Amino acid sequence: MIETAGLTKEYPGVTALDRLDVTVGEGVTGLVGANGAGKSTLIKILLGLVPATGGTARVLGHDVATDGGRIRSLVGYMPEHDCLPADVSASDLVVHLGQMSGLPYAAARERASDVLRHVGLAEERYRPIGGYSTGMKQRAKLAQALVHDPRLVLLDEPTNGLDPSSRDDMLSLVRRIGTEFGIAVLVTSHLLGELERISDHVVVLDGGRLLQSSATTDFLHATGSLLVEVQGRHDADQVLGQALVDAGLAARPAGDALIEVDIRDERTADVVRDLAVDLGLGLVRLQERHHRIEDVFREGGAGSVQPT
Ligand SMILES: Nc1ncnc2c1ncn2[C@@H]1O[C@H](COP(=O)(O)OP(=O)(O)O)[C@@H](O)[C@H]1O
Ligand SMILES: [Mg+2]
Fold first, then answer.
1. Whose CA, among 12, 137, 140, 298, lies 20 to 30 Å from 270?
2. 11: Cβ below 6 Å to ligand 1?
3. Which-ligand-closest: CA of 209?
4. What is the pLDDT of residues 254-267, one digit of tens each?
């Protein structure tokens, strides 16, 4: 779907993207990074809206430097910031944008009605957007990204500004676009926790550089750990900790009777359990901890998380 090679964007005094090599395939891909990491810059370059200053990128086989118009006809885009006209209804806006994408009026009306229903905008779609809640505006932005039946959508922070329940609805909707509608999705967020729920693949950007790109399950294994609490003897945590290290796992003390073990694969928890049994120790707690994005950044490069 997307392939970049050495993609670089320099703004005066800022390198927004730094020699980025990334590949995005079918399904839902989460693009994660703190504010300023370069997510929106990457999306605008992929759409041919902003020129790169180095490297290359192809979207659906088309070169972003020369085929921006073609790419935008095949790709849907949900921009990050509020960009909707206040005095137009969502229905009129989506019909209009459908026509601009080349659909005849009747087809644009039909498609607009379908996509507005899919995103859950009901009767309010005939009212001016100026009176919408943030959640409704985000839905209208999503609907216009889908109206021309794209093969790929680029969704820039679709959960921005939403309360927790609207956030969950939006995430489920994004997931459904990828699964039920079969449209490839690249979705950004500064929250890893949101994207790991709905993405097949996660790409992490930090300061314009690729920190990691991997299947979501591998990502969780690479960044997750287990918190283990043992009892049975006064030095139970040391005994089990040593046994885990001997078994080739990365384990370290994590406080009173607690050990933290890096998750190596889906069998890691079984190894901990079996060793505790062998040593005659009681497991009080075996709890999975997923690192937050901040932890990934802190460990990036030096620790267990390496760009792949
Ligand atoms: N038009 C611009 N002019 C100058 N600097 C910019 C411009 N757009 C983005 N930047 C800078 O590029 C970096 C990446 O920004 P952005 O792509 O918006 O990050 P993100 O979407 O991950 O928050 C930031 O340091 C930002 O300040
Ligand atoms: Mg952004």
1. 298
2. yes
3. 1
4. 888 899 998 888 78
Q: Which of 49-63, 188-202, 216-230, 251-265 has the highest mean pLDDT?
A: 49-63
Which strands make up the sheet holding 258-262, listed edge to edge?
Answer: 251-253, 258-262, 224-231, 282-290
Among all ligands shown, which has an atom nearest to the Cα of 205? Answer: 1
The reply to whether ligand 1 has any atom less than 6 angstroms from the CB of 40 is yes
Residues carrying CATH 3.30.70.120, the chain = 224-299
What is the phi/psi pair of residue 226, to 5°?
-110, 135
The answer to whether the CB of 68 is under 6 A from ligand 1 is: no
Q: Give the per-residue pLDDT at 217.
A: 75
CA of 163 to the centre of ligand 1 (A): 25
- Per CATH, domain 224-299 is 3.30.70.120: yes
Report which DSSP code applies to 128: B
Dump pLDDT digits (tens) for 39-75.
999 999 999 999 999 999 999 999 999 999 999 999 9
- Alpha-carbon distance of 224 to 201, in angstroms, equals 16
- CATH of the structural domain 2-207, one choice from 3.40.50.300, 3.90.1140.10, 3.30.590.20, 2.40.128.630: 3.40.50.300
- Copy the structure tokens of residue 27: 């399904």
